[in-house]
Amino acid sequence: MAAELPPIGQLRNSLAHSLKLRQALSSKMRLGQIIMRDRFKALLAETGYVTPGKRLDEVRVLFMGRESFDSLSEHDRQFIYEQHQKDITEKARQNFHELLLEQAELFYHVKSIAPTGTITQEDIRDITQTLQEDSSILSLPPQIMTTLDSRAVLLPLNSLKLLMLSL
Question: Which residue ranges does the record assign to the Rho GTPase-activating protein 35-like FF domain (predicted)?
């Protein structure tokens, strides 16, 4: 027959067991939160309605009732959504700049007409129209196409103008 532990020994074992259970439960909950964050990120990536510049409030209804959305705190949802917005905006900007670089010959006439570097609204309108007719730009997803307006052309246009002037 095994010797019984004194009451203090039983208390120590009980406390140690309780702490182990609490730590295991805490680890399981953290792992669950990490999984839900990853699932929400994947859900954002799969959803075509989340486009650059849209606020979470505009698309919230699409995610309500989804476990990955409902299980996160508002702070976590907002943080993950803002990070996703940064990612898709940067990707759209890079894709747009690549397409503009592919069309660098469009900008050459701006260099030869206005060597001072002045870009007119007519130049922007002509370039925008030509780019909108380009099949590679037309094949872009709609969220990237929305960046093709005068304001979006102006910044890369200035960069390309500097590039063309250096040639």
Answer: 36-89
Check if the beta carbon of residue 128 is closer than 8 Å to that of residue 150: yes
Distances (CA, A) of 103 to 86, 87, 108, 156, 160: 26, 25, 10, 12, 10
Answer for the pair 56, 112: CB distance below 8 angstroms, yes or no: no
pTM score of the predicted model: 0.60
Torsion (CA) 130, 100, 94, 122 in degrees, nearest 10: -60
The position carrying tokens 């870009």 is 119
Cα separation, 84 vs 45, in Å, equals 8
pLDDT at position 17 over 90: no
Average pLDDT over residues 98-119: 67
Cβ neighbour number for residue 126 with a 10 Å cutoff: 14
b/e map of 132-147 (b: 16 or more CB within 10 Å)? Answer: eeeeebeebeebbbeb
Return the structure tokens found at 42.
Answer: 């994947």
Nearest Cα to 33, choosing from 60, 62, 68, 64?
Answer: 68
The Cα–Cα gap between 11 and 52 comes to 58
Q: Are 93 and 145 in contact (CB under 8 A)?
A: no
